[in-house]
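Why this split exists: single-chain examples teach little about how molecules sit against one another. For that reason, every record in the complexes split bundles all components of an assembly together and asks for one structure covering all of them. Below is a record exactly as it appears in the raw files.
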Amino acid sequence: MPRKDSIDIGELTDSAFYILSSVIEEKHGYLIMKTIEELTNSEVTIGPASLYTTLKKLLAAGLVELNSREEENKKVYKITSLGRDMLIKEIERKKQMVKFAENFLK
Amino acid sequence: MKSKYVMISGFAFSEESDMEKLGNYAREGWILENIVAGLFYKLKRDEPKDIVYSLDYQSEANEEYFNLFIESGWKPVVSVGNEMHIFSAQAGSNPIYSDCQSEIEKYIRMKRQAKKGTLYSLIVAVALIALLVISVITIRPIFLIVFGLLILDIFVFIFNFMPYIAYNSRIKQIRKNGRCSLNNGLWKVNVFSGSVFLILGIENLIEKKYFSIFYIILGAFIIISSLNGYKKEKKCS
């Protein structure tokens, strides 16, 4: 039974969310992993297999594109305008979720 | 240089236990060097190392792919057919898959392949059985040839269908538990199919058919590998 891809139904997995945010400024693969690890104080780490698979999916969905310029033979990834729209939508959705929960915690 | 060969238990069924086994060997100073004939790990005598092994399936593996692993501390050890890749890293390194959504993809790709193989070999089997029936009625001389092909095809079918079941159950487990657990009860399927082959083999042996030996070897092999699964399950519980 084919299962709907999370990107197709307009949702980003947690890893996809972190990766997509970090390529607002273009980066090569390893820098994406390092940036996520450093900015989250190692709370979030992305494994190489997860990064490769997720990047491939983001590329196929047109949310991320490759820059023609390569850094030391490494591919450089950058968010597309489609990816940016999706990210903003996802941030709004997450904000709503947090707001909802906070209503009850106050 | 001293080398040692260790049988592969089949990646679809016992990926985790095989990787664990390789790690244990490395701590004793036997380091994975290669895979021989798709059946054995070739281990080389070296300094004992505290390392862990991980397996990934990736048919579109390129320089970029391997660079990502190397930069995060995972050294490529051996690749089979640019499809299956084994990496090693210092014990305690971050795992190669950090979330289950992407880990599921790994098995979905393999499941699709095994499914294709299962279907094709099944179609071939049906065609061969039809041909077999025809040969019995009209063209006797080709009977043995067709029969031989059918036996071969049954092997192809089994080695696609069993992994298909294994990958399927892995995917279900990751969806259910969020992680692939070692304890998957697949050994029961193995005991069953192994017994079927043994019975078939013995039955044919009584009728003095030479190919029965294939069945018996296959049956014994499957049952032995299922015993490993059983032992593991006992250990876990």
